[in-house]
Amino acid sequence: MLRGVENHSSPRAAAFFDLDKTVIAKSSTLTFSKSFYQGGLINRRAALRTAYTQFVFLAGGADHDQMERMREHLSAMCRGWNVRQVKEIVAETLHELIDPIIYDEAASLIEEHHAAGRDVVIVSTSGAEVVEPIGELLGADRVVATRMVVGEDGCFTGEVEYYAYGPTKAEAVRELAASEGYDLERCHAYSDSATDLPMLQAVGHPHAVNPDRALRREALARGWPVLEFRRPVRLKQRLPALAVPPPALVAAAAIGAAAATAGLVWYASRRRGTVS
Predict the structure, then answer these.
(1) Which sequence positions are flagged as catalytic?
(2) What's the predicted TM-score (pTM) here?
(3) How many CB atoms lie within 10 A of CB 186?
């Protein structure tokens, strides 16, 4: 992805994106529940409960109480999970599960911010083991995410070390601004949830994306732009020139090249025989 050259004589700026239902169409953590079930991390009952939680999340958004219940559920569910195994499952299924649900509009915005010389930062309540690979897939410069406590055995204890939620997101934005030299008045932020009001209020250019009712009401009252993202699309479809060709095409190209080379060798040897 090409990025514009920033003028370092002026203050730097960044674009802060919430992840779930802002950049992707679902909850990033809950999207992996089937993979975690197949990997033996959760049982069928937990998988069904997670699917129901995803449905509630998609149907009506999540207010503060719902987010707290979701946090408690996920913390309890991941207790005892081996962190290395979680990372391996996420890496193996990332493109299959996340690539198809990235909003085309969000991907375009990320490209536009990079072209304008702004850093792109994903700020998500989901766990770092899930968010960091997604951030890399999106080409984000930095990621702020929830971190769980990991025991000496390499497994999650079920306790939360850092919860990237509500006011904590705004604190992370301000800390990044101080450490990276961002001018918050020149920064942008995007979210779907009223729980992210502190983060949106921390920047000069807040945007409500697919907002829940509470955020829509606040955005209209404050005159903030309200964006509707409706087109999930695979990144490879957006950037066909950068897409990796299927193995069959690679094999066909190799066979074609070999045949062409053999033909040239035959033609050259025949020509030499004719000349002599």
Answers:
(1) 18, 20
(2) 0.77
(3) 15
